[in-house]
């Protein structure tokens, strides 16, 4: 009897609690489900610049040339200045492996580099003057001695060209490189005018072939366009000529060039 009396109040209390919870549960089921949150998109990182591909462009700079002349084995002209503006075209190809860049490039440039040699210290024709003599009648005679006047030589560089290998190190869109290889030039050597006998002086032109070495830096400011500044030294070798009076000339040409270039790169692989 006592047990039934205790159970009844507990049942009533439990039923009351359940009755109070039912509206709360029903309200909770009516609430909208929380929207799933998306992670922010990852930032787009541009791939590092790749120097591989073909390129073409133009260059403009200044050539400090020096012409050396030996006359019958004796130095007649020691590094006469043969300077001028130079400009032209270039084309090449680069291969990039990690940060190393290997390439080959050819160029051609027209120039107005010209030079005039110094006055010869020994014209080679003796000295002028007269000598007194006697023709047998007691009347003194004068014998004239001819004087050969040899004007300075002239040097004109018409064009230069190179075929060089290149090796460099890339810092993304910056490239530091060294280059070296074959160099050629067209030099016109004109012997200074010789006044005696009115002999026309030879106008000798020729192709000079030698070597080149130098280096520079490039900057790619778009995926396809790049700018360059470089320096190189050329030794074009020498050629031999015969002058108007039979003198044997050996003419050598060297040069230092500083130039800027603008190029367009195109890569069939889209790098």
Describe this structure in words.
By secondary structure, the protein is mainly beta. The chain has one domain (53-118, 140-266): Porin. The protein is 11% helix and 59% strand. It has one helix and eleven strands; from the N terminus they run H-E-E-E-E-E-E-E-E-E-E-E. The strands form two sheets. Strands 1-2-3-7-8-9-10-11 form an eight-stranded antiparallel β-barrel. A two-stranded antiparallel ribbon has the order 5-6. The longest helix has 29 residues, at 2-30.
Computed CA radius of gyration, to the nearest angstrom: 44 Å
CATH architecture: Beta Barrel
The CATH C-level class name = Mainly Beta
**How confident overall, as mean pLDDT?**
80
What is the ordering of alpha helices and beta strands? HEEEEEEEEEEE
Distance between the termini: 95 Å
Counted beta strands: 11
| Helical segment count | 1
**Structure class:** mainly beta
- Low-confidence runs of at least 5 consecutive residues: 123-132
CATH topology: Porin
Total domains = 1
Strand composition percent:
over 45%
Q: Strand order within the widest sheet?
A: 1-2-3-7-8-9-10-11
Overall, the morphology is rod-shaped
Biggest sheet record: 8 strands, antiparallel, barrel
**Percent of residues in helices:** 10-25%
């Amino acid at each position: 009897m006592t047990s039934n009396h205790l159970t009844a109040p507990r049942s009533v209390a439990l039923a009351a609690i359940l009755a109070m919870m039912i509206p709360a549960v029903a309200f909770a089921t009516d609430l909208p489900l929380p929207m799933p949150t998306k992670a922010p998109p990852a930032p787009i990182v541009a791939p590092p610049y790749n120097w591989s591909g073909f390129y073409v462009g133009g260059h403009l700079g200044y050539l400090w040339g020096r012409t050396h002349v030996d006359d019958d084995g004796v130095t007649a002209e020691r590094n006469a200045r043969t300077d001028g503006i130079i400009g032209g075209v270039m084309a090449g190809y680069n291969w990039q492996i990690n940060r190393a860049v290997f390439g080959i490039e050819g160029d051609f440039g027209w120039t107005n580099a010209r030079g005039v040699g110094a006055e010869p210290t020994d014209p080679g024709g003796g000295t002028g003057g007269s000598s007194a003599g006697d023709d047998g009648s007691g009347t003194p005679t004068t014998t004239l001695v001819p004087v050969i006047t040899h004007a300075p030589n002239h040097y004109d560089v018409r064009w230069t060209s190179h075929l060089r290998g290149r090796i460099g190190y890339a810092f993304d869109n910056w490239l530091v490189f060294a280059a070296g290889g074959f160099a050629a030039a067209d030099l016109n050597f004109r012997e200074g005018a010789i006044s005696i006998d009115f002999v026309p002086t030879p106008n000798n032109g020729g192709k000079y072939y030698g070597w080149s070495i130098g280096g520079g830096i490039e900057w790619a400011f778009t995926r396809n366009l790049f700018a360059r500044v470089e320096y190189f030294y050329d030794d074009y070798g020498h050629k031999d000529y015969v002058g108007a009076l039979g003198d044997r000339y050996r003419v050598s040409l060297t040069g230092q060039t500083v130039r800027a270039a603008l190029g367009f790169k195109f890569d069939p692989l889209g790098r």
